[in-house]
Design brief:
Layout (H helix, E strand, L loop, with lengths): L1 H4 L3 H37 L5 H11 L18
Amino acid sequence: MLSSVLRSRRAVQVNIEIMRAFVRLRRILAENADLSRRLDELEKKYDVQFRVVFDAIRKLMQPPIQKPGRIGFQSGKRT
């Protein structure tokens, strides 16, 4: 938000890149939803033998789970 308030050339460029990143993110999410819908259609067509394949593809489509980092100051000592 600060980049949209500042008026320097660099701030304008940063703001443009931020908007482009959000557009790309929206496009990726839409493609993922389309892929999920197509996978559902394929899953209805084929036997149970392909269940393992479809489960593996769905697992790959999910974002990785990341553990949140510790918040706050950390000294060199561990307690």
